Amino acid sequence: MRTHLRGLMVAAAVIAACAPWPSRVTAYLGDPVYPVVQSRLTALSNLTEVPVAEAAGATALGVWLLWTRVCWRASPGRRGRWMAGTIVTGTAAYLWFLLVWGHHYRAPSLESTLSDFVAARVTPAAVRNLAEHAVRAANQLHEAAHAEGFPGPESVPEALARSWHRVEARLGRTRASVPSRPKRPWMAPYLRAAGISGLLAPFFLETYLNPDLTPPERPYVLAHEWAHLSGFAREEDASFVGVLAALGADASSQYSAWLMLTSEVAAQLHPVTRAIVLDALDEGPRRDLQAVAERQRARVAWLDRAAWGVYDRALRSQGATEGVAGYGRVATLLIGSGQLTDVVGGESP
To answer: Which of 57, 134, 210, 253 has minimal Cβ neighbours within 10 Å of its Cβ?
Structure first.
């Protein structure tokens, strides 16, 4: 009976990974199941400053290494049981990932579900307008944002959380997500070397931030990871939700979002146009972007390429066809949806 159950578990994992999911299953797991799971798991992980997923992973790895040593010193029969146990344990972890959070990759993208998205709005002129708008907003908000101050590395900004909940509701979430307290991960040296700003630890729905983030980066990066916590799995969707959440919050959060957009959208312009647009940046925002660039120089080139390559393949394997390129599609969503107008007022850039 135990053997049959193990076989069924492995078969279920293979089918879940390879076969398309019925839309009803995906919708049911996304709502009402996920909001209940998220509220319980995140509230539980918020009780401690310890990165729970890392602690559990380190413990599991230690037990597995010890078990491996014992089995491989024993009879060949024990080795067979070791292999079977390893496969079943890995399968159980994968199924847990899918059921807790990974099923969001099977949900439709925001671009396909936003009723007001119009692809024809996304033109080179509109992208330049957005970049110029971002530069102007960063210039205007710099002094107020720095005077107000930026949230600490492990704080939960109330204004940002309230704005995030409003964006969730506007996008159809029936229940507000529980904010996860940002934690300093044990693998901070890896995040630094790989150029990773933050991540959602899906097994316990925690948020980890790179402790080297500059203060102006923190609000937007936290909003981006909270968007993942809401169930927006694709990077372009999380960036879109994160921008809207930050722009609807206090001055420091707004500045953080516009500073990110200044860099992100300008990168999509022709080099000559980019130079003209960025030349309008005041000294304050320019210094903040230089500080971000200085932080990113700590990246180890080969590890950076390897880490992002692995992440790109992982995203595509779960159905996120854009892979890591989705990070650069936030301008497409902002312009095509027209929802930026709801945040900043006036005409959409």
So the answer is: 57
